[in-house]
TrEMBL record:
It comes from Vreelandella neptunia. The keyword Transmembrane does not apply. Pfam families: Aldedh. This is Aldehyde dehydrogenase. Keywords: Oxidoreductase. The active site is at E251. CDD domains: ALDH_DhaS. The keyword Plastid does not apply.
Amino acid sequence: MTETFQLFIDGEYCDPATGEWFDTINPYTGKVWARIPHGGQDDVNRAVDAARTAMTDGPWATMTASNRGKIMRKLGDLVAQNADRLAALEVRDNGKLLAEMAGQLNYHPEWWYYYGGLADKIEGTVVPIDKPDLFTFTTHEPVGVVAALTAWNSPLLFIAWKCAPALAAGCSVVIKPSEFTSASTLAFMELTKQAGFPDGVWNVVTGFGPEVGAQLVEHPDVAKITFTGSDTTGRKIYESAARGLKKVSLELGGKSPNIVFADADLDAAVAGAVSGIFAATGQTCIAGSRLLVQNSVKEAFTEKLLAIARDAKLGDPMLPDTHIGPVTTQPQFEKILSYIDIAKAEGARCVFGGNRAQGTDMEGGMFVEPTIFTDVTNDMRIAQEEVFGPVLSIIGFEDEAEAVSLGNDVIYGLAAGVWTKDIARAMRMSKALKAGIVWVNTYRVISYMMPFGGVKQSGIGRESGIRAIEEFLETKAVWISTSDAPPSNPFIQR
């Protein structure tokens, strides 16, 4: 049965102004399972107007920070109560493993608890100014309406990352989810109503980039854009936002090095390498897609890795014993296969996988075999460009200096992994690697307490952690004269 969803604007579900819907596909079955509203400029305008009104005239504008926090914490409770339902919905929409999505949704409430608690801790400062007869202090105010553009691989997790600090700061939001995975975001709005958020604080307009995303970015009443997606789209957003001098946070692509030294616990490192590239079908910006292995253990390490890859089970993402699910979108599926062909043409040796996966449990789905390349050099496209799929490049290195050089020799700088028992080396590598995140003897770990984001062309700004709220605040300086006398000379600056 095909479900039909509606937009969410000004506290109510509603049909799109276009009167049109588009189909969304279950990546596992290849069949249409839902109809998503085809929003347009009129819907964007309505949503932004509602968000702006909520910040200026509605109860959200006058609500104390403590009460904002209480509503946010209630939302966290509601997510916890509905985690299984929301996780199943995401699996149907993006094809990721239920085990993965259930883990995300059960952890998701922590962002609402954390930032809900932080909402009334945003304190200004009294400045002991160097000028007499003046009392000066700073306050922090919400930046304004926030446009949150989320990616298709973890829609609800990205809503927590972006919207929790934005709401704690006192902003309102308009969300544009990926057109491939909009259903869970629309369903999530039910919980925001139950939590007691005033009308207009939350808004969702679904549709396509040129008709919704671009309109949101360019809208004069949008003050801040937060985006997760490709670096190509991120650059376009950055350029458009610059014309309006809007604040921007961009979480973009990655080509992360996962670096294994000879002294590492090789079994743990193999597990980390598998997690880094084959978990989530490799559809994650932090994928450890470049596996740098010290030459003295490279052959032995590769054999251990192949043994696990051979046992990986592809199939129904709802089943607990499935290891790798389908690729989420048709364009991404075709892109992954094209990069495999590119790697072969450039001389990389495919030692495992390298094809579309087929089988009785994969009929209709978009499956790619977990793929491992050796004989890769760092100048090959497979080592330089983001594939966003279960495709691993193994590159050898001799020493620490070469590992750093290879690790940093990409345009991206989101994450990196280091595997070693030498704590001094771990500290040196953590400092030397140009990445926003460095994991040592682990990989692909996140927390609401730790900042997430990259350097170079992996983006701008940070999500999660205590300082993420600063992305959604403006600082105001207030000067109060305590003197009864007029200035001695009003024609000069004091």
